[in-house]
What we know:
By secondary structure, chain A is α/β, with parallel strands linked by helices. Chain A is built from 13 helices and 11 strands. In chain A, helix 2 (about 45-60) links the parallel strand 1 and strand 2 (about 60-65). In chain A, helix 2 packs antiparallel against helix 12 (about 280-290), helix 7 (about 175-190) packs across helix 8 (about 190-205) and helix 7 (about 175-190) packs across helix 13. Chain B has a single domain (about 1-50, about 85-275, about 290-560), classed as MetI-like fold, CATH 1.10.3720.10. Chain B has 23 helices and 4 strands. In chain B, strand 1 (about 45) and strand 2 form a beta hairpin.
Amino acid sequence: MKNRSLKKAITLLVLLLFSISLIAGCGTRQATQDDEALQIYAAYGNTANILEAFTAATGIKAEFIDMSSGEVLSRMRAEKGKALGDVWFGGGVDSFMVAAEEDLLHPYISPESEFIDDRLKDPNGYWTGVSIVLVTFVVNKDLAETKGVPIPQTWEELIDPQYKDEILMPNPGISGTAFTAIASILQRMGEEDGWAFIEKLDANMPYYAERGNEPPQKASMGEIMIGISPDGINSQREGYPVEVIYPQDGTAWWHSPVAIIAGTDKLEKAQAFVDWTLTPEGQEILAFESPRPAVRPGVTVPDDVERLENLNLVEYDFALAAQERDRIVEQWNQRFGN
Amino acid sequence: MESKIRKLKNKVQDNLFTGMALAVPVIFVVFIIYPVMKIIGAGFFDGTSFTLAHATPLLEERGIRVLLNTARVSLLSTVGATILGIILAIGVVKGRWPGRRLFTFAAILHIISPPFIAAVVFIMLFGRRGFITHTLLGLDTSFIGWQAIVFLQILGNASIAFLVIASVLRRIDPNLEKSALDLGASRLRVFFTVTLPLMIPGILAAVVLVFANIIADFGTPILVGGGFRVLASEAYLQVLSLYNMPYASVLSILLALPCLLVLFMEKNILSDRNFYSTRLTQEEDAADQRPAFNLITLALVYVICIIYALLTLTQFSVIAIGAFTTTWGHDFSFSMRHIDIVLNQGAGSIKNSLTFAIQVALIGPFIGIVAAYYVSLKEGLYRRTLDFVAILPFAIPGPVIGISYVLAFHNPPLILTGTGLIIVLVCIIRELPISYNAGKAVFRQVAYNLEDASKDLGAGRFMTFFRVVFPLMTPAYKVGMLHAFIHTMTTIGAVIFLVTPKNKLLTFEIFSATNSGYLGLGAAFSFVLIILTLVGILVLSMLGEIPGFLKRFRKDVLVGSKRTKPEQEL
Lengths: 338, 570
């Protein structure tokens, strides 16, 4: 008898464990449906702190996940018809352009966007730029000192043989930073000279990184001397011995936008978020948490963010670059791909 | 009256068992075959017509290079990791050195540090400014290239091989070896003619596991490969950067082929031989103190074990240092700033990771073992098909299975995207082959006549399963449960497309922190993840002891009372 009740006990235990986990599973699901927090796909820096400030200012709860622009785009395409995210915050403007073309975005012209330069926003309101991203050299000072080489200040200096195997850039097919850098060189120098220059640059690269964040990371850890990346200030703030160089012969740049994802069921909250990121307060917090120049004039930015007027920004035709993207990447891959 | 109730109960139990038997094929079809069909559809079909257009890039020079790279790295790493796993297993199971039980724990510690953090740690140790290579030895080396991939793969996967092989090795009857020794065979001869053959099911299971794991891993090649491309990283990047699902699907299908080949090899080798061992208990046989090998071999094995344990310890220490210092690898002053962020902003992720991991750990192995048992009862083509399907999730790289789940479960009839359930499901399916294989490996060693005996004595199928088969499966369940828990805690590839802001996971936090250059924060998240995983493993291990405890309890307390009234049981 006892033996049988023991058997029962085991069976019961198994069933109990099952039901617990099932109930727990349903609980999670229930919460997803009830909770009204804004769901944000972010390709930005320090989004957690930015959203805390947003919630404090507006009372709207928001949750986010970090992804690269490519990931966001892949996801939105896979989720087409039933969006799981409400807002796409930050990333490469070319990805936003593609998304707008594929009807993945919900147009919205924020009342705040009248203060933003026309070049930095989509005329139909599919996306609005929130900050300027600058393509810089992230240079490990210790390594440069040990090797006894000067810290390069221009693209032209980068092709010097003394930097052989010391420069890391991502594959432009993968990274918006690298693509903007390459396309800027081509627009600045013209096709023929541009490709010739890229070829010389290629001679100094040991390989091409497969993630946009590998170059600044490797430069921080002293694995490589120079990383091409917009994120050097973060590494600097973290305490790594890196210097951020804005190339004097042409600093490539783009604007990192915000957009509402088509099919959202929290349109008003999503619009509130877009509005907030463009207000002076929002702009200030954005510039502070993720150290980049603001798009709205007259906003106070932290000291370690370079003033745009001090920089030699490349005259960059975004529409042209977007048109030519496939050709450029293809041509690059043929000649330099890993 | 009594017999009527018993009949009814048997009937209920039989129906329950039939239910489980039905559930297995249904789960296979809905959560494995259906998403896989979606991938194949994407890779080789334009609408409804078959096409090979998406496969042509592979025939170009770059495609061929990727194939060769994949072959080189995966073969070398698999051989290395398996051999290291065998050595570690022998050292721990056959050795008598102090602290060898702790070693199992060290091996687990090794698996649970997330791959991208392991790569960062090893760059800090062996890289150009690495602590060991540069600061201590003054070298100017670089921890980049295919050798670095192989090194990390061997280290990481040896733990997996070790766990699988050790669990099989523990069940080998030492009397067989003892007899051989008594009959005058040399130790070496005993090892190669008795021990090693008995280990083969475990070794092969480990090879399948490790090989599939390595060939599907995209993180390590991307992090330390330095532009060295393999199929998995290529597929990942195709999905990520280009959303080229057709080409990525072709690559995934290609990744599946060698895995299937290894699988068939495993089967064919095993089908020719019988692996019998009638030993059912795991009780240590303390009487025999004779070492299994001569001293030099043993010393070598121990040295390897110790180096491995040291590496593990170093890896963990470096992560711990990173979590509690101002700037990881640069400024070593004590700081709680990273941990503070983890405990505040990361609280939701911690909760999600734990919840999902516990669910997967409890349900996953159950399904895997039930499936293994169910499949073992079947014959012929049906059995081979089920067997193939159960292992299939191995062969599909994480991100691709993630995307396939989005494609399969985003629209009616079954909408699961955006829920936590889909994450749990994808982890269960990803872990299915492990508990399934572990179950199968144990099955092979156990004589089937035990089960027949139970049936002959009048036990129902359900009762036989729970009373005879399931207890035998305890080691497999333990392996499966631990793996399921660890995998869910540390996985990123499979869930990267399924995670929503609501369902953020710890690995995701590590990934994005490290990705954005907040290495210290990444280390802090990893530290918390490792600690939580360790605690989870401890708790689950205790759960795994329950059947053994119940058995002893029954033996000690109940057998006596049974003897007094034997007719009641009959």
